[in-house]
Specification:
The protein is α/β, with parallel strands linked by helices. Helices cover about 25% and strands about 30% of the residues. The protein contains ten helices and 18 strands. The protein has helices at about 40-50, 65-70, 70-80, 95-105, 165-170, 175-180, 220-225, 240-245, 250-260, 280-285, and strands spanning about 5-10, 25-30, 30-40, 55-60, 90-95, 115-120, 125-130, 135-140, 150-155, 160, 185, 190-195, 200, 205-210, 230-235, 265-270, 295, 300-304. The chain has a seven-stranded mixed beta sheet with strand order 6-5-4-3-2-1-18. Helix 1 links the parallel strand 3 (about 30-40) and strand 4 (about 55-60). Helix 9 (about 250-260) runs parallel beside helix 10. The longest helix has 12 residues, at about 95-105. The radius of gyration is 22 Å and the shape is globular.
Amino acid sequence: MEPFRIHILGCGSALPTLHHYASAQVVEVRGKQFMIDCGEGTQMLLRRSRIRFTKLSAVFISHLHGDHCFGLIGMISTFGLLGRSAKLDVYAPAALEIMLHKQMQLFCHGLDYEVVFHAVDTTRQDVIYEDRSLTVESIPLEHRIPCCGFLFKEKPTLPHIKRDMISFYQIPISQINNIKMGADWVTAEGEIVTNNCLVEPAEPARSYAYCSDTRYIPTLHERIKGVTALYHESTYGMDNLQLAEKYYHSTARQAASVARDGQVGKLLLGHYSSRYDDEHVLLNEAKEVFENSFLCDEQMIFDL
């Protein structure tokens, strides 16, 4: 099975701490790498995680709070210093485009690669990226400013050929693709060999939903139903529910409710408030609602 990994770079919230960096992740799918959010310190975390800068093909910015995008212009500049030639796609709320271009004019003279900006409508769930193996959808969220999450969905693969059966029935190579697409085989004697005798089912397609930052949305689970893994911000515990409501953030218990109602595979908690010295209080709160919950930490890798 091809890799589908989530590399946690930073999982803190707006106020820096000695332990956590601002939000940033890398999603690795079938040899391609995509960044979600790019807070300060992202370049250092890429180095520590041994992720090659040149492998990143696109950056997805959820919203225009600094802890999610202040690292972007620095990373673009560094790509230029490293001699990048492949284009970089940036998907973000439309308001970033003018500012990003002005920053690039000021700080990034003579780039040998193209930065292509794609405005994302944060109010709609749309496919905003697609290639042969993957789609990425926007997920409308509710924060103090326009904000969206991202849903990475692996496209289903074709079933696997049973080589011994192909050899036994002397099926020519020219028919392999037809069989993968569901065709039966008819022997010279007229015997019908059904398709399920010739193939093994493909592995289930995997998916990952990233939801940060947002207040608790009771209907959010409908948009991320059945994903393999869900990252949902858990800035506060229920002891600070009033702060969560005031600043349009979520508690760990609320994040777990989304995971439970969405019947997801696992829940990744992050975007911790700096007021928590030990995030296990958030983990314990989430596990009371959804057992398969995990704390994120810098340089952790989750395999889906």
